[in-house]
Amino acid sequence: MAATRPVPQIIPPISPSRRPRGRRISQQRLTSNRRLLTVETTVKLGVNLVLSAFALSALIQMLPQHRSASEKLQDIRAEVKITEERVIKEREEFTRYFDPKQTKSIMQEQGNRIDPNQKPIIFLEERSSATAESTDESKTTYAGLD
């Protein structure tokens, strides 16, 4: 059997005159790469400084708006606190008015009706001294009882 043999590749020898050129080209590339890197870094720093200046000016312009918004927020919180206190008071009053145990006392407060089980007490004022001498009554009488 005849097997195929790989064809030997011939590598041309590097001449001594080409080696320094490679070094020279790489040195030129290094210098140009360094220059490009320096220019790129300088441009990046410049752009970042401009962006920082814009951001700083925007923050300075937003500061008064932030202060006014925080003052409005404090005012709103104060109003909410007052409203919450009023709601608590109204809720207590509501529960009092709709409490079945207190209906009689509320009716007595708001109307002239009196519970039939209660007896009214009427206080009579003392009479003046001139009238008291004539009637000889200087005591206070309660509902006509002595």
Overall spatial form: elongated
Structural class: mainly alpha
| Estimated share of beta-strand residues | under 5%
Number of DSSP-assigned strands: 0
Run of helices and strands: HHH
Describe the protein in words.
With 146 residues, the chain is an all-alpha fold. The chain has helices spanning 18-97, 103-110, 129-135. Helix content is 65%, strand content 0%. The protein is elongated and about 150 Å long.
Gist of the model:
With 146 residues, the chain is mostly helical.
Characteristics:
146 residues, mainly alpha, 3 helices
What does the secondary structure layout of this molecule look like, with pairings?
Blueprint: H1 18-97, H2 103-110, H3 129-135
